[in-house]
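Quiz preparation item.
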């Protein structure tokens, strides 16, 4: 029996070459060795974004990209998460087996909190707290003559006055209305906090053995593994503890030299039209130290070189040497790349145009996959309910 894999992606629109070479090429190969379940994780989108106006369209756009690059519905189960309601049921049951503090330690959540604008308020609060502590300590020195009991009362009064002034200021500027709004609990929703539990349900409801991930995603899978163990120990063996299938994902830089991401507006889409592709390549960031044509460059820091490594593999060594020696200019290097990238992407673009004419077939593929996924999930939930001695109707 082949081992089972669960992997998925949030539908946020058309996919870029970072997805293609970072994830989808790997998925395509895994289809040959594993029983693969590939999930369009639409519920995961709404844990951080309440606007669902483009969600249905994005599901279809992403499914088309999957089909275009060779994710084959005859070999793998392609399905939409929200079509399989058992994910929600298992999410609810697993949520009883994990503490809030464990979820607050989730590294993705910490990163999110650090990035959001509201956390700036928290850092302002921290800055203000240290300011008020400094004032208090001065005040303490001055009042050293006063008895200890009086001194403590003075400090408490001063602290509370300072806090009032701080809140009044924030309120005055329309930042927050109360101290409560300054806490993390007010910055994230219940659904967002439970994101890794839903992720665990996605994997465990199919009793998947293996999850393909990069080294940096290991802490996320750990929550799923903990929940599988906890469930098995509490109610009896149901879930395999899923193993990570560590994969070396290609790191594709965005056209501005940062990580390729839709939110940075620095992507090259799999379906990019030739004119747009050319423009993106010709205006892309390169090694800033290579100002004149004959200046020696540093290809390892240049996104154009990273694209040569995927679209023009056979010539990368030669390009690296001529870039470093200054024999190759950036304009020529970019022109060569455009030719190679366009040759690679043209058949995919054409395939996409064919799928766009038969969107109903794409919907049928997803419905068919969701039906298969549902059967598996239903079987798991029957066992789960039985083990937990829950009402089964
Ligand atoms: S020559 Fe090519 S690899 Fe070197 S810096 Fe210019 S664009 Fe980048």
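Solution:
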């Amino acid at each position: 029996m082949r081992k089972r894999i669960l992997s998925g992606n949030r539908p946020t629109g058309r996919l870029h070459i970072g997805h293609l070479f970072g994830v989808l090429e790997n998925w395509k190969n895994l289809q040959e060795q594993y029983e693969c379940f590939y999930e369009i994780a639409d519920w995961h989108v709404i844990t951080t974004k309440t606007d669902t106006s483009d969600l249905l369209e994005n599901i279809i756009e992403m499914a088309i990209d999957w089909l275009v690059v060779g994710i084959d519905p005859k070999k793998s189960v392609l399905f939409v998460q929200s079509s399989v309601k058992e994910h929600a049921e298992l999410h609810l049951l697993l949520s009883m087996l994990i503490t809030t503090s464990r979820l607050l330690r989730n590294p993705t959540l910490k990163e999110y909190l650090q990035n959001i604008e509201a956390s700036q308020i928290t850092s302002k609060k921290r800055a203000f707290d240290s300011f008020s502590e400094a004032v208090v300590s001065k005040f303490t020195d001055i009042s050293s003559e006063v008895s200890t009991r009086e001194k403590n009362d003075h400090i408490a009064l001063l602290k509370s006055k300072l806090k009032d002034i701080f809140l009044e200021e924030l309120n005055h500027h329309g930042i927050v209305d109360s101290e409560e709004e300054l806490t993390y609990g007010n910055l994230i929703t219940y659904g967002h906090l439970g994101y890794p539990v839903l992720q665990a349900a996605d994997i465990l409801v199919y009793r998947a053995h293996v999850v393909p991930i990069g080294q940096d995603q290991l802490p996320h899978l750990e929550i799923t593994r903990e929940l599988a163990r906890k469930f098995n120990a509490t109610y009896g063996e149901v879930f395999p503890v899923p193993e990570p299938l560590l994969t070396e994902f290609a790191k594709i830089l965005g056209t501005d030299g940062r990580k390729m991401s839709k939110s940075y507006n620095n992507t090259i889409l799999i379906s990019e039209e030739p004119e747009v592709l050319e423009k993106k390549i010709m205006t892309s960031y390169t090694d800033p130290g290579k100002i004149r044509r004959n200046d020696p460059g540093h290809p390892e820091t240049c996104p154009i070189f990273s694209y040569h490594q995927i679209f023009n593999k056979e010539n990368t060594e030669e390009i690296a040497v001529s870039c470093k020696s200054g024999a190759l200019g950036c304009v020529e290097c970019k022109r060569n790349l455009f030719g190679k990238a366009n040759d690679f992407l043209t058949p995919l673009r054409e395939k996409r145009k064919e799928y766009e004419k038969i969107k109903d077939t794409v919907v049928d593929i997803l419905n068919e996959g969701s039906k298969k996924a549902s059967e598996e999930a239903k079987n798991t939930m029957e066992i789960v309910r039985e083990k937990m001695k829950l009402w089964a109707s």
